[in-house]
Give the backbone structure.
Amino acid sequence: MEEKYLRVEKHEGQTVLFGIGDWNLYNQRRIESELERIRPVTPLIWDMSGIEEFDSAGVLLFINYFEKFKKLTNVEVRGYTPQQERLYRLLAEHQNDEISLERKSEGSLASVGKGVIDAYREFVSFLEFVGYNTAGFFRYFVNIRNFRYKEMFYHIEKSGMDAIWIIALTSFLVGLVISYQSAVQLTKFGADIFIVDMASISITRELGPLITAIVVAGRSGSAYTAQIGAMKITEEISAMRTMGFDPYYFLILPRIFALMISLPLLVFFADVIGIFGSMFAAKMELGISYTQFINRLQDVLNTKHFWIGIIKAPFFAVLIASIGCYRGLIVSNDTESIGQQTTASVVNSIFFVIACDALFSVLLTQWHI
Amino acid sequence: MMERRVIEARDIVTSFGETVIHDKISLHIDAGEIYGILGESGAGKSLLLKEMIMLLRPTSGTMKVLGHDVVNIGFKEAQQLRQRWGVLFQFGALFSSLTVAENIALQLKEYTDMDKNTVDRLVATKISMVGLPQRAGGLYPSELSGGMIKRAALARALAMDPKLLFLDEPTSGLDPIGARNFDRLIMELRELLGITVVMITHDLESIHDIIDRFSVLADRHVVAEGSLDDVLRSDHPFIERFFKNEYVNKKFPRGQKCEGE
């Protein structure tokens, strides 16, 4: 193999080793493989004058092999510049054979234990959060002037009004798909008109609230976590606390109230659009006219179904907003944590919304409503 | 060989819409210098630095860094140039998902074919060079103090053995002792590694102790440039305000002498 970075000249009784070229980080590996082949037997003179660029990777390599060669024979170094010598001294002083850069890792048992304790702590801190919120909630109503209307309306606009188009689109499609799919089955029995019963009840009672809550959880729950988390990192929350602005008053309760007000309205909107979607599909697929559909709707859709759907919405809202805010507050001091907490926020709130819906379902069936 | 002129800015104009930040700024930085950029807040110090490191394109003018025209530069050339300088951001900008050692090793792993052992050795050397204890290598940025973050970020900036180092307010946020140590560290590195340092600073003591030449930005122009003595000859209001006050006179009697000339 061609030697690119070293040239060896053998004289009587001594070997001269010329370093040539760039001894830098890009060539370190190739220089090392060339050095590896050198087995000095006679006294060695190491000449550096041919080295053009000599950086810390190159110098470290030199330190390494200088030590190695010294054990075998006499080594004399020459031809280095004062600059290179200074670099050598600096690196020789700071280089260390025992490197411990790895983070101490813990055993699997320890990490299981840590996980359990973390989960417990998280649970306790969530209880603390709920407690603070409840306390704040009552303080709100002791003095109505405490109420942050401006923040609340801002969040009604951001998480309610601005979500209208995406909710319209999803609920329209869900309504459409529901009747489209059931139309095929219902025609088999000649029970075409029952599509109205099916679609309207399922949309108002279950699908409307659920779809809306899931969209809002993905849209606003995550935003709450990210906003509050970023404020936590930049110490804005600490700043608020020192000025006597309780973050529960200023950040969290306005968001919870805003969602409690806007979510039922969004559910109502989703119901209307969803039913319109199924009306549209019924006309296309089964030829049921809008008039027919609406007449039947007024006969079969008991208002209780509608109210059940609407009543559920504030409960979902509390879940989504408080999980979102809580996750934001426990963001720790690094950017990665925001991502983790935002993910956890969406996953948790969707799960709890569905769990809460199931609970309603069971209770209402038990009570024969 | 190093070019003698490491950075050369000519007629740099930076404007955002109606707002003109720099109006035909020209300056040059020579190899081996510690060069300071000083100015009122809002005078565009950080913008000028960003233009040097290709984070921002000047509206017009030419900027040459290490012989490359960074205003009109191809992707490949730019990537190569980026390996030849190190940048220390004001707040460190360490990647928070990586440990300090991983932060420093990142470029070494990406751009060179050195094996893990060598990379680790280099990283350990850099950590020790900037005065951090070895165990800091395994810590995450969120576990470090402010001073340690600066040092770790400096180690990361030095990872590729750059010949040019950009520092954005290196001593801000450090205690006076820490700041002086940091100054000394930069001095030492300049001596030992022969690097050119460009720094934005407000720190009077840094200006007094370690900076060879600096330029003062105010009113969209460079109002003074040169060594401290040169700059003190200017009678621009900002320089009057910044350097020729009681505090400075008391602290650096040399300034007083200059003023008396």
Q: What stands out?
A: Residues 247-286 of chain A form the longest helix (40 residues). The first strand of chain A starts at residue 6 and ends at 11.
